[in-house]
Specification:
This protein has helices at 14-17, 20-44, 51-70, 75-93, 97-111. With 120 residues, it is mainly α.
């Protein structure tokens, strides 16, 4: 399989951008980051990442991964969803749990269900 690379060296192929190994590593990095922040916050007496936010983040991250593997959404839409997820995570860490949950729900709604074999 040949990868398409632009002059800037950026791969634009969805299979390259969201390769299963890359998505798995991204998920593991996210979990490690959450664990590090959770552990540090618990030791310092600071607010911790709300469990409802963690559950919604797993749901959204799984949707992003599933859509990437199914190749049914444009890569830019998946990238935007991931950035929105990071913003929702920041809201959660800031203690704005209700806003974060609403943001996670909006992301999940925007991604929608899997449409295997069709691309938007």
């Amino acid at each position: 399989m040949m990868r398409r690379v632009t002059r800037a060296g950026i791969c634009r192929s969805p299979r390259c951008l969201f390769a299963p190994k890359r998505v798995l590593m991204l998920g593991l990095a996210t979990l490690m980051q959450c664990a590090a922040v959770y552990g540090g916050a618990a030791q310092n007496g600071a607010p911790i990442f709300a469990p409802v936010c963690a559950a919604r983040e797993i749901t959204v991250l799984t949707l992003i991964e599933d859509h990437a593997l199914a190749d049914d959404l444009a890569p830019i839409k998946l990238s935007n969803a991931y950035v929105d997820m990071l913003n929702a995570r920041a809201l959660c860490y800031a203690g704005r749990t209700a806003d974060a949950v609403a943001a996670y729900d909006e992301i999940a709604g925007a991604l929608g269900q899997l449409h295997i074999g069709r691309r938007e």
